[in-house]
Amino acid sequence: MLRSVPFALALAAAAPAAAFDLSSSDFEPGGELAMEQVADVFGCTGGNVSPALSWSDPPEGTKSFALMVHDPDAPTGGAGFWHWIVLDIPASATGLASGAGAADGTGLPEGARMIPNDYGAAAWGGPCPPEGDSPHRYNFTLYALEGATSGIAEGASTAVAGFLVNAAALGTATLTGMYGH
Q: CA end-to-end span of the chain, whole Å?
């Protein structure tokens, strides 16, 4: 999977990433995600629609963006759970519309692509924590990248994608939503 990525990039020590702004019209920072965003699997009955996201003030030199959505509270033995991974978002983009995470990818900016989440789907997979758990955190992290992420091969794991995205990050913006039932 790493053959298509320059070895130097994979080993590069990333400089501390600068912060920029990420927001959503669908939930407040630290606020609860709506049933529209909740998964429709494992006993959850939500709409499984990705929330709208917008961003501003990315670092100078940004060539593309990557979005990774993670639940660090998932009971997976410490690995958490990856809900959405979007790569190759063009630098000209300033947001993703509600529903951009549909499996057909038609709501994404031209050139952007998704890789499989921990549900096994290259799409948005909404929250569905175990019933009775304290509300889980859903960290939406947008990475401003110094190049395109097209070096991440189809079928790459979320761990490999995360490693390579972090190595190329000029800056990050994180927005956290909550959900429990």
A: 38
